Amino acid sequence: MITQATTTDLNSITSLHLAELGNTPNSQVGRWLITKLYTLILGRKDAQIIVAKNQQAIVGVVSFGYDLAGLTKAISRDLSMVEIIRIILALLTKPGALISQIQHRLFMYQAYTYLPPKYLGILTICIDSAHQGHQIGSKLIAHVFASARANHVPVFVDTYLSNRRAIRFYEKNGFHRVYQGFGNVLLTKSVWNNYFFSLSRSWHSS
After folding, report:
1. Which is nearest to 20 in space by CA: 52, 56, 66?
2. Rounded-to-integer distance, Cα 152 and Cα 11, Å
3. CA distances in angstroms from 169 to 108, 132, 137, 176, 178, listed in the order given
4. Which residues are bridge partners to 126 per DSSP?
5. CA distance 186 to 124
6. CA 123 to CA 168: how far, in whole Å?
7. Where in the chain does DSSP place strands (E)?
8. Is 33 exposed, middle or buried (0-12, 13-18, 19+ CB in 10 A)?
9. b or e along 55-76 (b: 16 or more beta carbons within 10 Å of the residue's beta carbon)?
10. What is the pLDDT, as a whole number, of residue 195?
11. Dihedrals φ, ψ of 64, to 5°?
12. DSSP H helical segments within the chain, as ranges?
């Protein structure tokens, strides 16, 4: 079952995120940060969290938003000084995570030049490893496409260049690369591909 997440799902969503995306800088800061981030996403009108459930157990999650810059600012404003210090100290004890975070910031600074004024950005997507290979990811991404289509915007997502499995998944679902650098890659998909293809054919035939 694919459904919109609620506050009662937050604990399970956090657990799934840490189990499947435990190598990301945010995950390495601690469970408290992941819970806080998903809580903030859930509380915004311009963002959504969709979950896949199998007998009430959450086996997949995707989060996305329409104003990633605004969401980032909201998160920064919501963090207390104590929490900011906790994040800094956690990253300082994990040099790999700190370098990855810096690289991603540099990457996004460049990637923003490839983003249109309005778009849908995928924040996170993860599937329980025990349930991978059952089209759960494709079903979740279909909900993202439906939302983007309803709002007439393209979809963008970024991931590590080393995460070949994720890149294959996105490309299998119609994404193509638009920029890569600093160990990351930005991909996009227009939800009107068929429309533009038919329109292009009509131009050439006229």
Report:
1. 52
2. 33
3. 21, 11, 8, 11, 16
4. 61
5. 14
6. 17
7. 2-4, 47-54, 57-65, 120-127, 155-160, 176-181, 184-189
8. buried
9. eeebbbbbbbbbbbeebeebee
10. 39
11. -155, 160
12. 10-20, 25-29, 31-42, 68-78, 81-92, 95-111, 136-150, 164-172, 193-205
**Phi, psi (rounded to 5 degrees) for 20:** -105, -20
Contact present, 158 and 202 (Cβ < 8 Å)? no
Closest CA to 28 of 111, 90, 115: 90
Q: Residue 2 is encoded by which pair of tokens?
A: 């694919």
Number of C-beta neighbours around residue 186 at 10 A = 22
pLDDT of res. 105: 85
**What's the pLDDT at 193?**
52
Per the document, the length of the chain is 206
pLDDT recorded at residue 14: 97
CA atoms within 13 A on the CB side of 31: 8
Report CA-CA distances (Å) from 175 to 70, 114, 178: 24, 15, 9
pLDDT tens per residue across span 6-47: 999 999 999 999 999 998 999 999 999 999 999 999 988 899
- At residue 203, the pLDDT reads 35
Tell me, what's the pLDDT at 192?
Answer: 63
User: What whole-number distance in Å separates Cα of residue 157 and Cα of residue 154?
Assistant: 10
Q: What is the DSSP letter of 113?
A: G
What count of other Cβ atoms lies within 10 Å of the Cβ of residue 120? 25
Residues of the chain with pLDDT under 50: 194-206
